[in-house]
Amino acid sequence: MPHIRTPLPVQLRNRPFTVTEARRLGVTEKRLRSSDLRTPFRGVKVSAALDWTVALRARCALLAAPGGCAVVGDDAVELHRLPTPFGARPAMDSGVSLLVPRATTAPRMNGLVVHPHRLHPETPLWRVGGVRVPGIEDLWAVRCAALDDESGIALGDAVLRRLQGDQTPMAAAVERLPVEQRARATRLFSFVRHEVCSPVETRLRLLVLRAGVPAASHFATPIPREGRAEVWPDLQWESVRVAVEVDGPHHAADAQHESDIRRNRTTKHHGWTQVVVSSREVMRQPHDVVRWISDELRTAGLRW
User: Fold this and answer.
1) With 0-12 CB in 10 A as exposed, 13-18 as middle and 19+ as buried, what is 61?
2) One domain for residues 248 and 134
C-alpha cells in the first residue's frame, strides 16, 4: 500500500514555518523529514507543493533570521517591481541579502548574505508579498554601494518616477546611510531624473553625457509646447529642436508602427528633427547611437 503522510496542521500548509513552531503544534520529527517539505534554510520548512518564488524564498529567509531584519538586494528589487541591473543573474541564483537591525547578531547560514551596514532605526519598512523590505528610496540608497554607476542611476530613475518626482524621500534615505556610503549615493543621485521611463532610456542619456554632448534641455515636455500634447520625446534639445526617441521591440507591431509614423510626421510638422534609435542599438551599438545623435545636433546648429 502507498504510504499516506499525516497531514500538516492547517495553519502550516500554505506558508513557511520554523521547525520549532511545527514541533509545538505536534508535528513529529519523522513528518518534518518527509520529502514533500522543502528545507530552504536551517530550521525552516515549507511545503514543496507551493510555487518556489522570490517572495516565498524571502519569507523563508526572514524566518531563519533574527527578528526585525529586512530583505534587500535583487530579491527586494524584484518584489518592488523595479529594474534589475543590466546583465544581472536572476535573484534566485544567489543568496538572500538581509539588512540586520543595530544591536542584533548577524546570522551565519548558507543562503543568507548579510549586508555590511546595519538597519537605520528610522528606515521606513514595507511589506511586499508578505516580505519585510525597505521602502523604495532606502532600497535604492542601500543598493548604490553594490551597483555600477549606470545600474544605480537607472534604479534611481525608476524610484524617483514612482515618487512622482519628489526627491525629498531619496535625499532622506541617503542621510540614513553610513557616512562612508553617502558620497557615492549622493553622486549617483545628482544624475537621477524622474522623467525617464526605462533603464534603456537611462543608458542613452548617460551615453550622450559621457560623450561630452550638452545635456538635453527638457525631459517629458510635449511637442507642441502649447495646445494638445501630441508627442513626448525621450530626449530633446530645445535650442535646436532635435528630439530623440528610443523604440523598443513592441514598436514592430503594426498598430504601434502606424503610431510611430504619425509621431514622426507630427514632430516634423512642428519644426523638430526626430532621431529614432532602437533599444537594441542602444545596448549593442552605443558608439553609433551617440554619433547619429551628435551628427543631427551639429547639423541643427548645436556647438560644443
Assistant:
1) buried
2) no
Q: Which of 27, 15, 22, 123 is nearest to 71 (CA)?
A: 123
C-alpha cell at 248: 523598443
On whether both 32 and 98 belong to a single domain, the answer is no
CATH of the domain at 252: 3.40.960
**39-73 pLDDT, tens digit each:** 999 999 999 999 999 999 999 999 999 999 999 99
**Interval 154-204: pLDDT, tens:** 999 999 999 999 999 999 999 999 999 999 999 999 999 988 889 999 999
> Euclidean distance between the first and final Cα of the chain, in Å?
83
Task: Give the span between the Cα atoms of 95 and 77, in whole angstroms.
Answer: 14
Whether residue 296 contacts residue 275, with contact meaning beta carbons closer than 8 Å, is answered with yes
d(CA 265, CA 137) in angstroms, rounded, equals 39
What residues make up the domain containing 80?
54-189
DSSP 66-95: PTT-EEEHHHHHHHTTPPPPTTPPPGGGSP
Q: What are phi and psi of 269, to 5 degrees?
A: -60, -35
Among all chains, which residue has been given the C-alpha cell 525629498?
A: 168
Query: Amino acid letter at 288?
Result: D
For residue 103, give Cα distances in angstroms to 67, 177, 181, 183.
Answer: 12, 17, 20, 25
Which DSSP letter does residue 98 get?
Answer: E
* pLDDT at residue 228, rounded to an integer: 59
Cβ atoms of 283 and 200 within 8 Å: the answer is yes
CA dihedral 230, 231, 236, 242 (to 10 degrees): -90
Q: What share of the chain is helix, strand, coil (3-state, %, to 5)?
A: 40, 15, 40
DSSP annotation of 231: B
User: pTM here?
Assistant: 0.86
Residues 107 and 173 in one domain: yes
